Amino acid sequence: MVDPASGGPRDPDQDRQIRFVATPTGPRVAYATVGRGPALVVPAAWIGHLEVGWQDPAIRAFYAPIAAWRTVVAYDKPGCGLSDPWPAPQTLDSDLEVLGAVTNHLELDQVDLLGLSMGAPVSLAYAARHPRRVGRLILYGGFADGHQVASAEVRAAMVELVRAHWGLGSDVLADIFLPDASAETKLRFAQLQRRSANAEVACELLVECYELRVDDLLDRVAAPTLVLHRRDDRAIPYRLGRDLAARIPGARLVSLAGRSHFPHIGDAAAVVREILGFLGAPHPSGLATSPGADRPSSPPASSRSRPWSPTA
Prior knowledge:
The protein has one domain (12-145, 214-304): Rossmann fold (3-Layer(aba) Sandwich), CATH 3.40.50. Helix content is 37%, strand content 15%. It is built from ten helices and eight strands. The chain has an eight-stranded mixed sheet, with helices on both faces. α2 (57-67) runs parallel beside α10 and α6 packs across α7. The radius of gyration is 18 Å and the shape is globular.
């Protein structure tokens, strides 16, 4: 993924591929692979669409330097984007089934996980329940108890808004998720949400977010863990990220500046630097090292044992 002419990441569109995998329950899930090297699996963070979302230059720019050193594997949550609908309300167990189906399909004996937002508790639960299959765990903008994301009144109001008017609800969520983004970027994100899922699915997934609980699994995580959280995150309070780092054995907390919840908006370069450093990859050109940042540490031998190619 490195352009020999510039020394920087080349256009990730050149080798990105979308395929499908059937889950044990039956629905087919769309997943995308891009990059080279050992796999870094990114569970679905929220409503998304592998094709529509990839049209956003900021999303492509966020993953390009990571894909220069890792094969990034992402997928659409059931009922969203290119994936089939799920036959029942989605839960942590269904999320873990989907994540397991993707990793098994790709024959990944051990993976590193990048859990963003709603993908953080799913990644954490997978690491706790399958300790031998997770080499390293990165949690960004995550939480262990969805009830702590907002008050009961706010949670109920958000669910009712999305149920009553998905157009307005998607605009409000864009303001909450991306407060530092331009009006054009917020509009693009709101449209992405509406194109990725209907109001019924959006409401269902928002309820699932608020009901997710993995706080009883925190002390069972054995993988080296990096917790990243923006101090003024408007969607998931910073204290919830701090709580993850305090309760996961040996976890390291990196506090970042900013209010926007998703990592590709705001100082995305700071997030990428920390991710690559934790995975033991060199800093890409154009991303300056943060003052006082930890030196990159070497990943476990199992996670760098051999390059992986998305040929499944």
